[in-house]
Design brief:
alpha/beta; Oxidized Rhodanese, domain 1; Rossmann fold; 2 domains; five-stranded parallel sheet; 10 strands; 61% helix; Rhodanese-like_dom_sf; P-loop_NTPase; EC 2.9.1.3; Rhodanese-like_dom; tRNA 2-selenouridine synthase activity
Length: 368
């Protein structure tokens, strides 16, 4: 028989399967990667029990819970928990604080299905606190370095070539810029923070000698970089990635037009191109004030023409014009200003292969 656990670190390092007994409304606000929501009570039942608890106390609330979850409903839920337990013999149950709900699931599994299944003591709240502490400690005590550079230089490609990188944009499911929206939704803020903390925890356990991040704004789409890490990013050293304008235009064309269009079509089928087009146009609208009235109108007209040509023939050549204009008029001046402000923190500047080699060599010589 396995015992209840409070070894949160090992749970996350080993990707241990966990059953979340909280109500769906709680789960949707934030959970942990790979966890399955098999609630003791649905949202309506939880609301009724919560109201009863406030008005009549704990015992009355427990009795109401037993009346609500009974008969066929109870049998179906126990079967779902039992199926999870049989499929995941090394897993655990948790609820919000590791209290009554997970205890009851545990008791019913034992009495009704003959299955001993352990709980996570402290529940979701304790595990969440552990991850936030992990993140804060890493931000203050780990050897971080940022990858900066003009738009389209391939900063994400650099991260993909390194074992010691943390891809914030991948975790946030967003490319970070005004044009960064993907075809699928972003995670909830809490999910973003939890996934980030687990990535840092696993890197730490693997003995990472440095942690390489892209130099991001506070918001990656609607996901906000946790404050301790973002504050650290204002002082961490940088490398600056360089590439030609032509190469950058081609990379942006691939990532933000060809591949993104394919994402939308894969996700939505025939309606995917229309959604892709709307997303691209809205991204331009989002920066229209910074472009100025005439600048926005000119780029919007070029973009509309490019999208019309892509819709009719599949050709994407016309997109290069608005991409290059946007780099010259908007992104490059902004990044040039940022580079000037961060010049004292830049340890190295160069093209992609040179930057990767520098970062690999830096990790090899820097102390852990």
């Amino acid at each position: 028989m396995r015992h209840d656990t409070a070894d949160y670190r090992q749970l996350f390092l080993d990707d241990v399967p966990m059953m979340d007994a909280r109500a769906p409304v709680e789960f949707s606000k934030g959970a942990f990667p790979g966890v399955v929501n098999l609630p003791l009570m649905n949202d309506i039942e939880r609301q009724k029990v919560g109201t009863c608890y406030k008005q009549h106390g704990q015992q009355a609330a427990i009795e109401l819970g037993h009346r609500l979850v009974t008969g066929k409903v109870k049998a179906e839920r126990i079967e779902a928990w039992a199926a999870f337990a049989r499929a995941n013999p090394h897993g655990y149950i948790y609820c919000f604080r590791g209290g009554l709900r997970s205890q009851l699931v545990q008791q019913w599994l034992k009495s009704e299905a003959g299955i001993d299944y352990p709980r996570v003591t402290g529940g979701y709240k304790a595990m969440r606190h552990f991850l936030l502490e992990t993140l804060e400690h890493a931000a203050d005590h780990s050897n971080f370095i940022l990858v900066g550079g003009m738009t389209g230089t391939g900063k994400t490609e650099v991260l993909a070539r390194l074992d010691d990188s943390v891809d914030l944009e991948h975790i946030a499911n967003h490319r970070g810029s005004s044009f960064g929206k993907r075809a699928t939704p972003q995670p909830a803020q809490i999910d973003f923070e939890n996934m980030l903390a687990i990535r840092l925890l696993k890197m730490q356990a693997a003995g990472a000698r440095q942690y390489v991040l892209e130099d991001e704004a506070r918001l990656v789409g609607r996901c906000s970089i946790p404050l301790p890490l973002y504050q650290g990013m204002q002082r961490y050293p940088l490398v600056w990635l360089e590439d030609s304008l032509e190469s950058r235009v081609e990379r942006i064309l691939r990532d933000y037009v060809i591949d993104l269009c394919a994402e939308f079509v894969a996700e939505e089928g025939e309606g995917g191109f229309a959604s892709f087009s709307e997303s691209l146009r809205q991204s331009l609208v989002n920066i229209s004030k910074r472009l100025g009235g005439e600048g926005y109108k000119r780029l919007a007209a070029i973009m509309d023409q490019a999208l019309a040509e892509q819709a009719s023939s599949g050709a994407v050549d016309l997109h290069r014009e608005w991409i290059e204009a946007l780099l010259n008029q908007y992104y490059d001046p902004m990044y040039a200003y940022q580079r000037e402000n961060k010049a004292s923190r830049i340890e190295f500047a160069g093209e992609q292969n040179a930057v990767v080699e520098f970062l690999q060599a830096r990790a090899a010589k820097d102390p852990m």
